[in-house]
Design brief:
It is built from 2 helices and 32 strands. With 351 residues, the chain is mainly β. The radius of gyration is 21 Å and the shape is globular. The relative contact order is 0.15.
Amino acid sequence: MLFFLKFPCFRQWLPGLLLLSVSPAVQARPRPPYAVPGHEQPVALLHAGKATYLVTQHSVLRLEGRRLVSHFRSEATIQCATTHDTALWLGTRQGLLRLSTRTFRPQQLALPGVAAPNVTALFGDARGQLWVGANGAGVFRRAGQAFEQELHTPAINGGVATADSAVWIATSIGLSRKQGPEWTRYNEEGVANHEIPDNIVEKLLPDNDGNLWVVMSDAICVFEKGGQRGAAEAELPTVKFIGRPGNEVFGVAHVPGAGRLFATAQGLLLLPDAPATPLPGFVAATDKIEPQRLLQPLPALPGVGNPTLLAMDKQQRLWLAGPEGLVVLTAKEFRQFAREQNAASNTTAQR
């Protein structure tokens, strides 16, 4: 069986996202990276006022000049992080911490009826409210100085909020979405446009185009524009894998003029906005379609290795972080980097 990813607003059908042939890395020269002390796995990139923080599995690092400087060390593994009420909030395997950006002294906060919660989701919504998900306990919303339970589903894997004020929760029994006062659940058995291919939702990846990528154990689907198109479509755009079967996806961003960039266990993969070769026509009556290799693999950036975190900021700069380092590229610099790699791929293919 072949699986397809359909983006109606892009006016084209994309076969299961496979790879172009890999070519030798070109000698692109992006700006120097910031080294990550301890070579820990990045968890979150946070901007608070004029400051930029990189949160890793055990540290909070602040960008100061050409260095990432450590300001806090956690014994418990940090799994998620966000900014709220001028502070940094850290979700760890052993509880929830509020960290002042002035003193960096941690304050432990309790969730109702939960001792040492295993915090797996932590984010703010469009209304400025803080949400916390704890595996084995459910989902909580901060109201004033206390937390109120919003969802009792025990197996919480992640959560995000979208610009339309919706709150999304990834669980091991489906995907939950709160829009206004109502919760909606998407699962394999869903009806009335509430069906997704798999009940085990492992992570939620919002991109800078307003799309939400739902990563499941056996598929990836996309709620376009925060679910507005998904609610109207009979079927969600879905693909079985990106790159190759079993390839873990860490993040996705759209770089203007270049395409969609995926950070994966296989490395950086680019789906260009305009494929170099035209796509074959899709005929609904046929059951045999020759898959096209659309994804362009990009070489590792010097000093960064394989990024596991990527984000586009409001200034259209691309931030890429891995255990080795953090690098920042303008959209123009990234486009040049991708063009050089594409030219090298074409040269290799013609030999």
